[in-house]
Design brief:
Cytochrome Bc1 Complex, Chain D, domain 2; 38% helix
Length: 391
């Protein structure tokens, strides 16, 4: 859904770009021609509806089709953060449907209305049966605008689903041991551990947004590779898709052939790069304070030393000790460092830092005040927070 541009937000961001001129600008050299509208549309369909054949994991191994059909009614689905796309619903369906009946969830899946869930539904004698189910990129990286009710509305692709409890969903599988279920249930809403099924360690991270990525070459909190690297890693090792992923730096090699993931990565990346960050909502920040906060961001706050350019990041890696954060999660990755996170749409995806240790933007500012001994006044910190809200 398009939102009306927020003049204060746009102006503030333009000021930051001017103050940080040169940061990331060299990415313009040698750029490839922009992708066609057809390629972007192809990527949109992949992002929303392509499971990459991961039904082999979610159906054959985890047996989630059985769980959904027997125990996941729409109210339960909404309670664990699943979203419903209202734009594909027949008129009057929600008013007449039994929201406490799992059969209604199956009906919604048949309509492709459950965001990020793709199912095969067969009908025999007028009875619909969910026979196979898989997941798509949209499960974690899309939400809805709640225009009908909480959890039901128009799709917002690229937005982090901060309500989603993927661990609780996975833990419903009858194929898991009690110890495995305990780990998954420990994650909580908005968190996921993309390394747990590779190294057996448990340290979930905040689900990040997939919008505003143009100008950021490195993807994810630890910058292991570009967007397509991470799409491949997730599609193959996390979603369980049929494809090939290999990275000797982390000792991971998965080969499922034929590879139906790799050929789709260019279009998927093109769509993700087309997703713009959402403007801050009108009235959600003090515009005058945000304008003062620009000077703090570029000056006393020293933020622009790492956050500049189109995506408001220098795309560089930093040791955990350098930025004052825990290092365990980084130690499980290819770089063992943390990338300067792009600052886009911050108002939408609290909590902050990879581990969610900063619950609010004031917490973020206080963290860097302590780590870098910035000496900011209370007014400067307040103004900086208002500016961050506007991004």
């Amino acid at each position: 859904m398009k939102r009306r541009a927020n003049a204060g937000s746009t102006c503030a961001l333009l000021i930051v770009l001017a103050l940080t001129a040169g940061a990331g600008c060299d990415q313009q050299d040698g750029q490839q021609p922009p992708p066609s509208a057809a390629t972007i549309e192809e990527g949109k369909q992949i992002f929303r509806f392509d499971t990459f054949g991961d039904e082999a994991q979610w159906t054959d191994v985890l047996r989630m089709h059985e769980v959904i059909a027997s125990a996941v009614d729409p109210l339960t689905a909404l309670s664990v953060g699943l979203k419903v796309d209202s734009e594909v619903l027949p008129p009057g369906l929600l008013q007449s449907a039994d929201l406490r009946n799992p059969a209604t969830t199956v009906a919604l899946i048949k309509l492709d209305a459950v965001v990020g869930i793709k199912g095969t539904v067969t009908s025999v004698g007028g009875v619909d049966t969910l026979t196979r189910v898989g997941i798509t990129c949209a499960l974690c990286h899309s939400t809805v605008d709640d225009s009908v009710q909480k959890g039901i509305g128009r799709r917002l692709d690229g937005w982090a689903n901060t309500d989603l409890n993927p661990g609780a969903i996975i833990a419903l599988s009858p194929a898991l041991t009690p110890d495995q279920k305990a780990v998954y249930n420990s994650w909580g809403k908005g968190f996921y551990d993309p390394r747990f099924n590779q190294d057996g360690q448990n340290r979930p991270v905040v689900i990040p947004p997939a919008y505003g990525l143009e100008g950021a070459e490195l993807a994810t909190y630890t910058g292991d590779g570009d967007i397509s690297y991470w799409n491949s890693y997730v599609a193959v090792t996390q979603m369980g898709g049929q494809g090939v992923f290999s990275d000797p730096r982390i000792g991971v090699e998965v080969r499922r052939t034929p590879d139906i993931v790799t050929p789709k990565l260019p279009a998927l990346k093109a769509y993700q790069l087309s997703l713009r960050k959402p403007d801050a909502r009108a009235g959600s920040f003090d515009a005058a304070a945000a304008q003062r906060g620009v000077a703090v961001f570029a000056g006393a706050g020293r933020c622009s030393s790492c956050h500049g350019g189109l995506a408001v990041t220098d795309d560089k890696l930093h040791a955990a000790s350098e930025v004052g954060t825990e290092g365990f999660y980084a130690s499980r990755t290819a770089t063992r460092m943390y990338r300067s996170t792009p600052l886009r749409g911050l108002w939408q995806h609290a909590p902050y830092f990879h581990d969610g240790s900063a619950k609010t933007l004031p917490d973020v500012v206080d963290h860097y005040e302590r780590v870098f001994h910035l000496g900011l006044t209370a007014q400067q910190k307040s103004d900086l927070v208002e500016f961050l809200k506007s991004l």
